[in-house]
Specification:
Oligomer: single chain
Radius of gyration: 56 Å
Shape: elongated
Strand content: 15-25%
Amino acid sequence: MDEEVKPDDENVNYVLAQESKELFHILAKQPPSVIMQLYRMMPGTAGGQNQPSSPGPPVLKDCIEAMLEYFKMASAAECCSFLQSVCLMCENIPMHLDSRLMSVAGRVINVCGENSGPDVTDHVPSSPLSDQHPVKRPRLDHWEQYITAATSLLQRRWKRLTERLVKEVQLENVWVSLRTANRGRDRPDQTPGSADRGSRTPEPDGDFGCLESRLTLETFLQGCAGKVTALVGQAGSGKTLLMSCLGQQWANGLGPVPSSYLFVLLEFRQLNLLSRPLSLSELLFQHYLPPKGGDNAKRAIVDYLLSNPEQSCWVLDGYDEFHGKLSRQEMTGPLDPKTPMPVAELISALLNRRILPGSTVLVTCRPRDAVDLGGVSDKVGQLLGWDQYDIKEYVDNFFGVKDPSAHRDLGAWAADLLLSSRHLLAMSSIPALCNICCICLEHLLVEGTDAERPKTDGGGRAQRQEPGGERGRPESVVTKGENGRAPLASTQVPTTITQVYLTMLGAFVSRDSSQGGSGARPQASIPPQSSVTTLDTLSQYGSELCELSRLAWRGLEESKILFVEEDIPPDVLKFSLRAGFFSQVEVRRLDGAVVNAYCFIHLTVQEFLAALIIMTTNDVSDAHLKKRFSLKTRWTTRTDQKTVFTDSLYLYVCGLASSHCTSALVQLSKAFGGVKGIKSWVQQRQALVLKLLKTLCNSNNLTGPKILQLCHSVQESQDQQLARQVVGARPTLELRNIWLSPSDIDALAFVVNSAGDIGVTLDFGACSMELDCLDVLSRCQHVHCLSFHSRKYGDKFAEKLSSVLPEFPTLRKLEFCGASVTATGAASLASGLENCPNITEINLTDNNLKDEGVQHIAEIFNKLPRLVSVKLGRNNTSLNAVDSLIEKMPSCLNIQDVHADGMKEVTVTFSQNSDVKSHKLKPKPTISLLNQNWCKSEMQKLAKTLARCPALSVLDLSGGQWDEDTLRTLTQFVPKFNVSEQITVNNSCSSVESVVVLTTLLSDRTPASELHIRLQSPVQVSIVFPGETGKPATEIPKKLSLSCCKLLPADMERVWKSLGTSSGLTVLDLSSNCLGNKGLKKLLEVLTHFRNLQEINASNNNINMEGVVMLASALCSHNNLTQIHISNGGKDELILRFSSEKSTSEKVQKTFRINNSSLLPSDITTVCRRLVKCRSQLELELSHSSFKDKTIENLLTVLPKMLSLQKLDVSHSITSATDALTLVRCLTDNKQVTSVELSPQSESFITFDEVKAEQVSCRLTHFCLNGDDVERLIEILQRGPRLSDLDLSSNHLGDEGVKRLVDSLPRLKISSYVNLSDNRLTQQGLLSVASTLCTCANVCGVEASLGEEKRSLIWFSQNGGGEKTLSVRESSLQPEHVVRLAEITSSCHTLAKLELKNNLLQSEWIENFVKLLNSTRRGCTISIEESWITAEEAVHLVHRCLSHSSNIQTIRVHQTTLNLSLKPTEPTSARGDNPDLAQSMATEKIGLVDCALDGYHLASLRSIIQSCPSLTELDLSNNNLGEEGAEFLCSILPSLPNLTSLSIGAKEPVAAVVESFTQACVQSANIQDLNLSGHKFGDAATQSLTTLFPRLRSLNLSHCVWTRTGGLQLAQALGRCVSLEDLCLDCVHLHEEGRPCLLEALRNMTSIRRLKLNKITTEMGQPGQSSVLDLLAALEGLGHIEEIELDGWRMADAGVEQLTGLLPVWKELKKISLSKNLISDHSGEKLLIALKSCSRLEELHLSSNLLGDLTAASMALVLPSLTRLSVLDISDNRIGDSGSRSLSRAIMYMKNLKKIHLTSVGTSELCAVAASLAHCPLVNDVSLSWNNCGDEVAQELSRVLPFCLKLTRIDLECNSVSVLGAEALVRALRSCPALQLIRLWKNKVSQSDALRLMSSDRRLNFAST
């Protein structure tokens, strides 16, 4: 209201002077025209004459100041006229100021008009302004009338709200926490980590802001004028009531809102009803308060409001209930308030100051919705919940209001019960829920008074159940009255929130009964152990409750909380109002009419009733429940979907799923008229909820708020198993930025206490919590780690926490980081931690402990026996804190490490007492004090402290930038330190003087063994100690490293002086300094002073060739200097190594290496002349260097003079063919050369011997040699010594170059081979190589291939003569090439074997080749393999070959290979195709084996076979002959009188065919060797077959099948085979009846020589032990046996013992195979001893047994005596490392060994075995697969390969060979041309490396096949 001006107190000039400051700001905002019009009101000289011509802002301000100063002193009339003009002409004048100025100006004008003279009136201008006053005055009147109407409205509203109010509302008694808006992040997902600095980290924001202070609501609202203020509070916290109270105070002229303001109170839940766009005036007049006075009044009010927006206060209540969402609008200009817009946009515009800027706005909402206001609110406060005092006061008032006279003790009992129940107390902190709790307690207590009153303890407080008691049942609280009456019946108090609401349900229904509801009030009785509600009462109101619950569920589905009468059935509405479920509100419809609406008394009541519908009816399907069931988060963002509810629905659903609520749900479902099979359905629905909850328990992607919600849900369900699953899935419960209440902690405690032995971690980060929460937290019994991170936690929090810490019996770790704890809090924590004996880790980083606080913590070290680590970094401490920790080490012996990095990281680590008491050697403690800047005095103090420390292993003082005096102080104390391993002082010195100071530490007086100094960044300094060696300092080997120290030659003398004699110096590193040649000279001069030196590193010291020459001289003059490595002429690497042996110079191997250098001729000459003086064996390496002109010439000149030279290495230095050929001249110039190997791509070297070499190896590969080069090379080789081998592979020789070379071979002296592979040969060049068989007598073999191998080898024999071989593969030969090969074959009379494989030959070419062959004097074997030689083509080829050549002795096709041999005969002319000459054919053997032959293919062979009267052997095995084949045999066998051997083994047995075969065999009277393997015999066929047995010498029935009768016949018939020499019964089935006959037959076969009985079976499977022994006994008489195979008998020890008795008799034994026989290691030892008598043994197969080291040891003794042994297979056994060594000793003596298989022998240590192969010159097949062998085995093989010239195959698959081992094998392959394959599948070689290696040599195979 306007202030009333008293004429006696104020005059117009005084008022103007008072308000001039505010008037100045108002006038400054007016248009310039208005200001100038007012300015002209000043009379004469003061105004108009001095009017500015062009007024700008500065001038206008001067005019305003002049006006105000003038009228302050002017007459009253002038002043009044001026003020009236201001009020009428100016806009946006505040209402209170406008009213005051008009009032005082109008009064004074009236007075002046009556009393003043004409002088005065003359000065008052006459203008139209005076006419405006009647216009503005009515606007003020309408405004004041509207304020008056609003006052009445708010007073009526308050009266209606307070009719049933229990407690008086006073703003000064309501507490608010002031918070800052969270504008930085949309969502507070994480607490940021500490910054990397010593200061403390800032505090992150909380849910929507952080707590700043606590103040009353009245104080909070003061100063909010013109601002947007947000007041947040939980649902039911009283926000709506407080806003009404604020309005009531305004209406009474009280409170923080001035009474002159317009107070507009709007509720968002009513705004939800507004669906159409509205203007500001429509919102104000239609839905808040319609004005009186019609449209004129509306326009006047709106105009005044828009002109004076700061005079309005807008209270927007319940934004959380608004369906819309407010948006933050960018300030693009004001909006037109008269334009209709949606309500959400209108409210957003008001909040964003786009309409009514400057108005006061107060918004209320729940905390989760405050995020929408974060960008617009200037001030945010949160209503604090009630404390216990407020709750008790409310309870007393509630029961006093109810009935002051009745039950006068009821209030006290209720208060005791409420304060003793955690859930009731937690709910009561919210006023609305406190009311519900009081209603419940009233119901319980009034019902309970009929039985017995609650009983209290002596102090009057209610007794409560202990936390460790049974969960899930209501707490029994029993009290007694003050008069001491006997206890009454116990009262059941709910233990979950769900049970509270069930009780509420009964209480509300009981209230309706007591108020005369439907029917009389039932008599309720609560039996012990029953539910907490009166089920009988609920049943009577079943229909009403059901409809009410459905209304609640429908409201939840539609987000509806306000219901009009049309939404509610009348009877349900009446019931709900009587019972108290509903509260009534007034709302305005769209037409402005006021109607009644209804809402539930609290949102949770609506949600609980909705939960009842879910759990008692099938209104909600299982699928819908699964879809909607979820956990809600407390974190909200602007993008989250709004909801008006509290998200408690599914919390109650989980609570109702508890088994304790089953009976109540069943009865309610009956009352609701629910589903059939009610109890079963209810239990199924409960099980479904628990299943959904279990899924969430096992989820691992829940955020902290959802985990907390999950804990609440599990607690409500009272399911211990679910609680265990929560902590089982997430042992760490991490909570961030959450406001925690005691009820939240109680839910955590329920879950944690179910964990059992599972250690749980509770991690609280930036969570707001009251100190009461810690009391509840102490109920957690299985917590292993407690973690607190927040600046909110200070000394008071620490003090409270310390009081509860001893109550955590399993606590292992405490983290209190990023908090605000000082020394006081540290003292409190220390006192609490003393009583935590199981604590292992303490983390107090990022606090404010300072030195005193650290000392408090250090005092408890000895009191915590299990302590492992303590972290104290970032605590504003000084060096004194670190000193105090170190000083604790002598008294606290379990301190293992003290680590401090500046003050950022301070950690103390401890060893366990169990480690100390154990027999293990306890590691010594370490100290790391990094980045500490000590001065000299501080270093002295520290050093004295360190000297008192117990034995340390490591002392790290890195990071301190010290001067020389500080460093010298440290070095003086080092001898006093007890350090066993190392002292590190990195980044602590930077000058050469520091180096000199530190070098004294390596003198003989100190125990240091190594000193490493590097002054180049990063600076590194370390002092290493030898530990407890027991040696004196003078005998300890020492190492000095001074790399990158900028040392000059002049500094060397200072270093030597500081170092002293230091007789123990072994390694000296002076790399990367500035020594130059002068420094090197000084270094070489002092070498004699350091007798124990082993290595000197002088790399990167700018040394040139002059220094290199000095080094060459030093190598010769110093006996113990053995190796010098020089790189880049001495500028880069320079290493000197010394021998430790005191031996003569002749016995020492010395190396002089120069690589990566550019060598001039003079350099080579000078260096080599110095090296000539070397008397020791010398290796000279000049690798990776470039030779200038004549350098090689000079080298060749001086090489003969270097008599001690053993090897010259020029790898990667010889890159041209010219240089290579020049260097090859050494073969003629130097008689000591033993080998020359030159290649631009790999190793190149020349080896020497002290005596003249008999044979020299020459390898010149990968150069590009032209014809002249070849001629030059031939000339050199002719003048040189005999060559063992000549390798010219990969030189691009071409056909011409190869032709020149092979033509010269007769003139060259070569003993082993010439390798011409990969030389771009064509077929013509290949034939040139093949022709050497004829042109060169010493050539014994040629191998050629133009395929991928590009192989071309010429082999030589030592003595010439002998048989020769020729192999041509994959060379795409043409007919003329075949003709030439035939000529070569015919011309070479000693050619024994010709192999043509995959050369794309056609049948006609082969026929022509056979026709051209002419073999004389001795036979020749020819092998031709082509993929098309099979089936009919094979038959045709055999026919044509036999037709073309009469001297074919043997012809055979095996698979796709044609093999034929020529019989030595006198030359005859070719017969062509004339069959008349068939009588002269010499063919003796024909074979078509496994070549896909069918019987009908044989018809074409009938005539040719019948024309072979000399045919003795016919082999048609492993084909599909069928009936046609049988008929063919029957037809030809009678015409073959000399046929003695027939082989028709079956691939697929057919019983009908074998009978024909046997009949055919019977017809052939001369058959002695018969192979019928694989056939299936019938009895008739068996009978026919047995007639042949007496005349047979060889019989093969392996894999045959016969009947029981047939088997008996065969066994009996075998007894008549007295001439049998070869018997094979592999894999046959031995019937019991036939076994004795077989035994008898074996005893009678005295002439048997080859016996194969592998894998025979009996009716019981494998032969039994008795059967085995019987079979072995039957072999006793086989004195002529040569080969015996008994694989798979499983004879074991007993069988081996019997076998060993037979072996001495078998003198002629050549082969024995005993694989898979369970032979133990002990039996194997006996077996080997027995084999010693078999001196002719050639093959020994013992794979897949149990042999071990004992057997291997026997092999070392026995095998050397078996000199003929060529095959050894002991794969799949259990030989160990020692056995491997024994085996290697045996192999060394096996000179005839050709094949050895050691697959999976049980050890990877096979280096010795590989090395022993060098003694086996004939070995060709080696298998070491599946042994996990490493590179060492591969490297050993690479060393022995050059000695195994016959080796063709190595199997190393499934080992651990890396690329290093594979590369070693590749290098070795260069000298092994015969080697065809190395298998390396499944090794540790990457695919890319494998491809690279195979590209260099295709003989490496990394594939599985």
